[in-house]
Design brief:
The protein has 257 residues and is of the alpha/beta class. The protein has helices spanning 41-48, 70-76, 92-97, 112-124, 140-153, 170-187, 198-204, 222-225, 228-235, and strands spanning 3-12, 15-25, 30-34, 55-60, 77-80, 158-162, 190-194, 207-212, 215-220, 239-243, 249-253. β1 (3-12) and β2 form a beta hairpin. The chain is globular, with a radius of gyration of 19 Å. The structure holds adenosine-5'-triphosphate (ATP). Adenosine-5'-triphosphate binds at residues 12-13, 17, 35, 37-43.
Length: 257
Amino acid sequence: MTIALRGLGVELDGRPVLRGVDLDVPAGSWTAVIGPNGAGKSTLLLALLGLRPGRGAVTIGGRDPRALRPRERARLVAYTPQRPQLPDGMTVFDYTLLGRASYIPYLGRESARDRAVAADVLDRLRLTEFAARPLGRLSGGERQRAVLARALAQQAPVLILDEPTTALDIGHQQQVMELVDTLRRDDGLTVVTTIHDLTLAGQYADALILLSGGRVAASGRPADVLTREMIAEHFDARVQVAEGPDGRPILAPERPR
Ligand SMILES: Nc1ncnc2c1ncn2[C@@H]1O[C@H](COP(=O)(O)OP(=O)(O)OP(=O)(O)O)[C@@H](O)[C@H]1O
């Protein structure tokens, strides 16, 4: 499902946070939104969901998400926020089932299929052993995977993830990114994610969009965006950029001498 933004502008508290942002995400591709703290990345994702009013046009599969009812939106787009509020007393399984809410009739109960989908997602995220555990008794990384489980249970064709790997160790980072990529390839999901780990972004995304000061500073293939000069200019960081085995860039921080 294609996603398009044209001339997006968002103001918060009377201050421009995004200005003139254009974005095209082809169906079945993965775009990573990168940029320094405060650049507007999370705001961009909320605008894609139709949850941040602003100027310009937003379409997902040709439809304006701002015009959708919550149930319709939930079937079209699954979203994980950067800092989700979790009901600490709820079990991981019941929380994952919340992802099925848009399929459950009003005043109805979840079906056997809803429970099967939730169980399958927990299995794929290696969370089955935590299914009966309340969310308040999970580690930070386990909580983050539970949030992803709820989103994947929605089985929406578009997945929008705000910093999905921040609390994860390197093994779980790889596992989550691989799972998302498998879903993209096998089920044709369209993925947009913010991510601070630039090497990880470059390894998985088809395209990067670099936001800086609310504007698009660069966009394109990872090797074209993740250059030493771009990182210095927009992140004020010194890095070495090496070419990985598949031609994708690998960044290593370099201490100033
Ligand atoms: N609800 C809000 N009201 C007012 N200003 C906001 C609000 N949310 C974000 N901002 C401001 O908008 C700018 C962009 O914020 P945003 O969260 O989109 O940045 P980000 O690129 O996701 O940052 P980070 O990497 O730190 O998560 C920041 O200057 C932030 O202070």
